[in-house]
């Protein structure tokens, strides 16, 4: 430790009296030195850089910490303490090491997930070869969006219990069914359960449709039920509003006049049916899926779609305003704004892809 102490003494003047720029420059030079010699270093040598870089990195700006994270993430023997420190930082800093650093153990990843929450969990779901302790925790604590993301990671490994929970949740989640259906590691008995759930979901979607022509695809009992639903819906005011909105949105879409600004106009005016139809057209989703995104129990869904399609916060805020449960709550709106600001575009686009896959299922 004497060499570490000597190096710290040499840096003490900069740490106590130097500016942030001075510290950033010293850190950059130290990182350059480490990267140029890392391949031949023993662990005790790496530990010296761990102490010094770790101390300096606590006293620099976010931009510099992001750069440090990006530079250390692909290094197999990066200073482990610094990597763990970066992984617990805000998501912009943590993301590179959470996705790529081999220095983070399963225990580290579980600890970060427990301490930091959804955004960090989503970054972890992008890691290759996730172990069972990590996937078990993400499924247990991550919520629907994280569950979908980890289920889509084809190199992730799942315990028997973890996979069982996924299949159980897929019974009521068509998008998760589609994601699990692409995996090759589902045990036979769970695969049978997944197939039953998929058949029931297909049947449920068919019987709920407003298209009478589809009723002939099921047996006579289901056909009669579907026709009754259609007849009742066609006489309702809700059907008339949706039908009128569909006609208007289709006209705008075909004329090339349907865009984000038009969507904001509908949402700001409280035109729920028009806004839903517009989102469906722009996001390439069906109306049932779009209704769940805007009004369903997963309040983050609209944030993900907005980020995936490159919409502004103002547009997404207008869609949230259509909800009766939190559309007028300033606390909920601010929480949503913070989540939207930190949401990763690539992850959001992956989730939107999952939703489109669900709609494509027969």
Automatic annotation (TrEMBL):
Pfam families according to UniProt:
DUF2336
Q: Would you say which domain of life the source belongs to?
A: Bacteria
Q: Give the InterPro entries listed for this entry.
A: DUF2336
**What is the protein's given name?**
DUF2336 domain-containing protein
């Amino acid at each position: 430790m004497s060499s570490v102490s000597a190096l710290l003494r040499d840096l003490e003047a900069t740490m106590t009296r130097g500016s942030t720029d001075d510290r950033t420059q010293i850190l950059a030079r130290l990182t350059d030195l480490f990267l140029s010699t890392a391949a031949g270093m023993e662990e005790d040598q790496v530990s010296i850089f761990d102490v010094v870089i770790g101390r300096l990195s606590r006293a620099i700006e976010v931009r510099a910490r992001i750069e440090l994270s990006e530079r250390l993430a692909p290094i197999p023997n990066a200073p482990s303490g610094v990597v763990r420190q970066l992984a617990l930082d805000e998501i912009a800093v943590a993301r590179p090491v959470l996705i790529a650093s081999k220095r983070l153990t399963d225990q580290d990843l579980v600890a970060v997930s427990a301490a930091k929450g959804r955004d960090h969990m989503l970054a972890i779901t992008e890691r290759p070869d996730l172990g069972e302790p990590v996937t078990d925790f993400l499924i247990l604590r991550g919520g629907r969006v994280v569950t979908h993301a980890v289920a889509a990671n084809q190199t992730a490994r799942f315990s028997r219990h973890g996979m069982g929970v996924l299949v159980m949740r897929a019974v009521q989640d068509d998008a998760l069914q589609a994601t699990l259906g692409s995996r090759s590691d589902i045990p036979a008995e769970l695969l049978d359960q997944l197939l039953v759930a998929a058949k029931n979901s297909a049947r449920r979607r068919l019987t709920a449709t407003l298209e009478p022509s589809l009723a002939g695809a099921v047996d006579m009992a289901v056909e009669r039920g579907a026709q009754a639903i259609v007849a009742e819906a066609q006489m309702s005011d809700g059907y008339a509003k949706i039908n009128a909105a569909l006609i208007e949105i289709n006209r705008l879409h075909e004329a090339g006049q349907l865009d984000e600004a038009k969507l904001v106009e509908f949402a700001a005016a409280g035109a729920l049916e028009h806004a839903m139809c517009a989102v469906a057209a722009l996001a390439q989703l069906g109306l049932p899926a779009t209704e769940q995104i805007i009004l369903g129990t997963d309040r983050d869904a609209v944030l993900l779609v907005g980020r995936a399609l490159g919409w502004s916060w103002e547009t997404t805020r207008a869609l949230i305003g259509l909800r009766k449960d939190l559309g007028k709550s300033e606390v909920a709106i601010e929480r949503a704004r913070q989540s939207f600001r930190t949401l990763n575009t690539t992850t959001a686009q992956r989730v939107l892809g999952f939703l489109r896959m669900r709609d494509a299922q027969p």
